[in-house]
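Lecture 7 notes: from sequence to structure.
We start with the chain below.
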Amino acid sequence: MQGTSEILQRIFPTDPEPAALAAALAAGNVPADRVVDGIRRLSVLVEVADTVTQKLSLDHQLPRLIELITEALDAERATLFLHDPDTGELFSRVAQGEGVTEIRIPESAGIAGAVFGSGLPEIIDDAYQDGRFNREVDRRTGYRTRNLLCVPLRNQAGQVAGVTQVLNKRSGEFTETDTALVEAINRHAASALEQAQLMERIERARREEQELLAITEAIATELHLDSLLTRIVKATTELLDAERSTLFIYEPSKDELWSKVAEGMGQEQIRIPANAGIAGAAFTTGEVVNVPRAYADPRFNREIDRVSGFRTRNLLNVPIIDRSGERLGVVQVLNKRGGPFGQVDIGRLKAFSAEIAIAIQNARLFSDVLELKNYNESILKSLTNDPAQYGDDAERAFHRDGGGDLHAWRHAGQVFGRRVDGDLRSAGHQCR
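Predicted structure tokens for the same chain:
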């Protein structure tokens, strides 16, 4: 079993080969308590192998491995962090009640982040004497960390893929033997954890693709602009698991961004200069603006929070750009649940913003067609009321083929110098 020899070398001072060990035990050169401890620790590796092969699920694997590590090292707590390259974070899953809760930290944060970066294990005898230790976690939880052991987890390619952190050994300080055991556990678990993480990412990508497709189909069927904007805002908030969203539309005649669909603000219309604030920065540059801490950004307008009573923590702004490169507006999402917006959120919102651009253009074209239809109906109504005042040509045009179809509209349009049916067909073709 890979990793067993390293443990034996740390536990037994003699040659760990079976024959040599048997001779040492027969001669009484190895204390019985060390033998018992060695057997107990080796049995942990058997349990680890069983745990990671039972079910390729991080929700199952991580909590159970954490439990095994804590017991094997006679410690109070442990955490097994895996690296998420999409967000640049270390994450873990811990059992809580009947469910599992995920925790995340930046990949360079604290002692775990330092070990992840260096790839070297560390034993910290006094956590509060180490400047990298985050005391805030202890303050919030009421827990007191005395000492800790932190060991990198490597994948089959030898790359650091995570970190195992163990807190507060009950019987003294952490030792090199503890380090060897955690390294062996990590080696046994690494391959299965990597496979489970890959499967989870594939399943998440498939689920997100289905969600985006469903949302896109929902907004594609809405052609009335006001209703469309409401649907887009609601869908955006759900898509990014956020608290609120706002959709700003650009009005060229006034060089302003306006919105009357801002969650939490009622139906009151908002208007700002096209270059104002964080939304204006995203619109004028045509670039994504991701703000992890709203109040630390001087462009953020705190007055809106003050008036609304809402507290903005973080926000993501993505410009809405059509296929020709014209900027139509900005979609702004507030307060990602569980932390700031990451690269995955940016990718999803950029993909969705392309669909938003198409939907807005279709709604505008539909509005133009409807306006043109109403205009021509008003002309036909006038012809119906008093066709004689428009001359014999207009009267004959209106009454031809029943007096109310598109063929009649074309002739009536020619009388007034307008190609009505051509405009309608052109607009209808663009809508498709």
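Points to note: The chain has 14 helices and twelve strands. The chain has three domains: 4-201, 221-358, 366-431.
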